Amino acid sequence: MSLARTPRVPVGLGDHRPGYVALVYALVLVWGLGDVASTYFVVAATGTTVGEVNPLIRLMLDTEPLLVLALKAGVVCYAGVVLLACRDVVRRVPGWRAWFTLVVGAGALVVCNNALVGIAALA
After folding, report:
1. Smallest Cα–Cα separation from 114: which of 53, 23, 62?
2. Is pLDDT above 80 for 13?
3. Beta-strand runs (E) in 22-114
4. Domain ranges of the chain
5. How many angstroms separate the Cα of 5 from the Cα of each of 12, 15, 118?
6. Pick from 83, 102, 109, 89: which is nearest to 28 by CA?
7. The pTM is what?
8. CA 122, CA 70: separation in Å to the nearest integer?
9. CB-based contacts of 23: which residues, under 8 Å, 6+ apart?
């Protein structure tokens, strides 16, 4: 009776890539909470919405800032639910992990940019 041998991976050198669900959560947190919080921070720090590139978001910030929160929450919740429901389909697409990583990275850059603008305005 022979036992199938599996290669041993030294501790600390295993596969540490984030899973599908973790990437979806990261996308929702960065583009939802991070983007909204940093946008509000910039508006509070500068006292104006002139720097907002998206005209719809700028209009919402000028009329009722809570509309931005409602819109962003709705969009990212919907996207998160669809991505989780369609997990099997998305995971069949070549490069799905790279796509998620790029989208989360782009969102992180947006959040960092907003934070830097807000910090610069406060200085």
Report:
1. 53
2. no
3. none
4. 20-122
5. 20, 18, 56
6. 83
7. 0.79
8. 27
9. 97, 100, 101, 104
